[in-house]
Amino acid sequence: MDKNRNVPNSFSSLTFFTGLCIGLTPVAGALAADNNEQKSDETLVVEAAQPSLYAPQKSADAKFSRPVADTTRTMTVISEQVLKDQGTTNLTDALKNVPGVGAFFAGENGNSTTGDAVYMRGVDTSNSIYVDGIRDISTTTRDTFNTEQVEVIKGPSGSDYGRSAPSGSINMISKQPRLDSGIDASASIGSAYMRRGTLDINQVMGDTSAFRLNLMGEKTHDEGRDNVKNERYGVAPSLAFGLGTENRLYLNYLHVTQHNTPDGGIPTIGLPGYSAPSAGTAALNHSGKVDTNNFYGTDSDYDDSTSDTATMRFEHDFNDNTTVRNTTRWSRVKQDYLMTAVMGGASNITQPDRNNVDTWTWSRLANTKDVSNKILTNQTNLTTKFFTGSVGHDISTGVEFTRETQTNYGVNAITPPPVNIYHPNSNVSLGGLDNNGANANGQTDTFGLYAFDTLQITRDFELNGGIRLDTYHTEYDSASVCGGTGRGAVACPAGTPKGSPVTTVDTATSGNLVNWKAGALYHLTEHGNVYVNYAISQQPPGGNNFALAQGGTGSSANRTDFKPQKAKTSELGTKWEVLDKRLLLTAAIFRTDIEKRSRAER
């Protein structure tokens, strides 16, 4: 019997991306069917379209009940096969498949970003990244070794996930055990000392249970940046019971450890459009470019993180059309880093010899972070299909309870020595982070209730709508070290020793969010449609980073007396399935209006 090599459930390859491919025999007895005797003179012929490994037709999130081609949103699903073929290792690389989405903001003037700093439709979307439909609270680089597919939904997602960015959301779907034993292993060697290995083992245990284990290890340097090194390891065991039955239980655990070197980049001196920061430094306008291999950090620079996530999901099929799912997840992400980078202002330049820029030095800024994020959530979802008269209904409804906490540990300031512009010396030791007790603590509790319905009015015409109600409560307190000098210094209360942490902010806010969406779709042909959609999404104060500011003064968007930021998006689009549904072509025009911005944002 010929084995279909394109069946997604097949585990049968050991791949070396350096060019060597070795086939492995699947553990399951794939040839057993050849030995079965013919038990009937009748022959049943079944014809079915082979599913595309590159263009998944449906979202894995139960909140999206319709196929991607019939969803009145701009949605892109990046399959596991695409991730494999491209050698994709992290979320940022995966998003290169989606136009208008990516890590476009790397930071400047010593304030570089770390992790997946994702922008979508021109708006920061870093706080709207989800894993299996649950908010991912990390600010680290997300590896894809345990990812089945990546789903990108453009436009407001408030009705889907609650508070979120006005630009859209990203949902990473985790790998799960399945009834197909096998091994998929890969080893990669590349430029910049790149070495990576992954192992994916799926083992059937009995008729309805399976175990899956994903492992990952990677060491690499950034191309052309020998001082910038990245190292991460991951393990993801999972168990499934009741596969193929009406009751299914999934148990998942994910652990990822990263040891990276942050990169503050290089000065733009000598590049087209560069202009010296002052008349006194005008000589920089005529000096050459710096070496792109220059590293302006120190040997003490680092970016370490540890992520742990435990998930339990239970599913029950009442019948072929109705399913209930309950998911409980606990996750903790700890990250600390020290990054030094140059400051480009005129006041930061020292000129030992004003006529020789080769002697000039630049001040360096030390960015630090020591943060711990936790999330505990329970979500219940019900999907069902039925008819009222001639109108078909496709319903998804549910409730969610979530507690998110964040602690930013106070760190004493670090002053790195200046660095030569053209001949930087990174052989500098700054020591580690020194916590001073001036911590900032934030916590948000959320209760959400949502319902979506797609109405099949006729064979060619559909209407859809959804609403989500969220009740939230956010608490925030922060402290500063007293007795300092300069801008923002805090005086020590009577009897408090100098250098002690003193609470400067202690506040809270509560409120309700109503997010909704409505759309219509008309099939022009069997494989093409046009659609319209209107959606509203809201982001309350502190919804992005758990931080709050006292009301009454200041222009911070996190002031407790500010109302939630509201985004309204109208979208008109068309989708066409071609090449036997192996290719989906989409086009859309949209308009997003963001209301109630703070003065600083305007």
From TrEMBL:
Residues 1-32 form the signal peptide. Keywords: Cell outer membrane, Ion transport, Iron, Iron transport, Membrane, Receptor, Signal, TonB box, Transmembrane, Transmembrane beta strand, Transport. Residues 260-595 form the TonB-dependent receptor-like beta-barrel domain. InterPro entries: Beta-barrel_TonB, Beta-barrel_TonB_sf, Plug_dom, Plug_dom_sf, TonB-dep_rcpt-like, TonB_box_CS. Gene3D superfamilies: TonB-dependent receptor, beta-barrel domain (2.40.170.20), TonB-dependent receptor, plug domain (2.170.130.10). A motif (TonB box) lies at residues 43-49. GO terms for cellular component: cell outer membrane. Residues 548-568 are annotated as: Disordered. It is a multi-pass membrane protein. It is found in: Cell outer membrane. Pfam families: Plug, TonB_dep_Rec_b-barrel. Residues 68-168 form the TonB-dependent receptor plug domain. The keyword Iron applies. One of its GO terms (molecular function) is siderophore uptake transmembrane transporter activity. CDD domains: ligand_gated_channel (cd01347). One of its GO terms (biological process) is siderophore transport. The keyword Ribosomal protein does not apply. Belongs to the TonB-dependent receptor family. This is TonB-dependent receptor Fiu. It comes from Leclercia adecarboxylata.
